[in-house]
Amino acid sequence: MRKYIPLFLIWISGTLLHFTYEISGRSWLIALFAPINESVWEHYKLAFFPLLTAGLFMAHERGIMNMAAPIVFALTHACFTMFGINYFYTGALGLGNILLIDILNYYVTTAVGYWFLVRYSAYEYTKTTGITALFSIAIMMITLWILTFYPQNLPIFIDFSKK
């Protein structure tokens, strides 16, 4: 049971992040870490930053070079899980956005990401792998930030609260 405490903390922190941007008075600094609208892209931040934080806490014991690759695995799989579930039920099933499914999607997404984080943290990684993974995390974060302020004209960036 103890190994699931970080997952519960991820769920709580992601839930709190959902409301942080509005509470902050729409601070651009908070916009880097919390969703600024109801698009699928922005909601990925709810999984990205709590999973990244959990991985960094695990790096305290295992070292950042050993945790960087599991963090990349966790963030990548969470990303594809979130987007995949969303587009399956909205696109393939044509259900539209349903709050309960969105919430369940968040829990499944972060659980998948956490599973990859824990699963792959058991291995030792080379320095080259660690550096490459750290570079990948930086690229993912910068991309997330750039597309927050400069979203593209694609369905993944549609703000569903304005439809």
Folded structure, characterized:
This protein has 163 residues and is an all-alpha fold. It contains 7 helices and no strands. The protein starts with a helix and ends in a 14-residue tail after the last helix. The mean pLDDT is 93.
Overall helicity: over 70%
- Poorly predicted segments: none
3D shape:
globular
Give the CA-CA distance, first to last residue: 42 Å
Fraction of residues in β-strands: under 5%
Mean pLDDT: 93
Radius of gyration: 16 Å
Largest sheet: none
Return the string of H and E elements.
HHHHHHH
Q: Got a strand count?
A: 0
Structural class: mainly alpha
Helix count, DSSP H or I runs of 4 or more residues: 7
Could you give a short description of this structure?
The protein is an all-alpha fold and 163 residues long.
Give the SSE layout.
Layout: H1 5-23, H2 28-31, H3 40-43, H4 45-62, H5 64-92, H6 99-120, H7 127-149
Helix pairs in contact: 1-4, 1-6, 4-5, 4-6, 5-6, 5-7
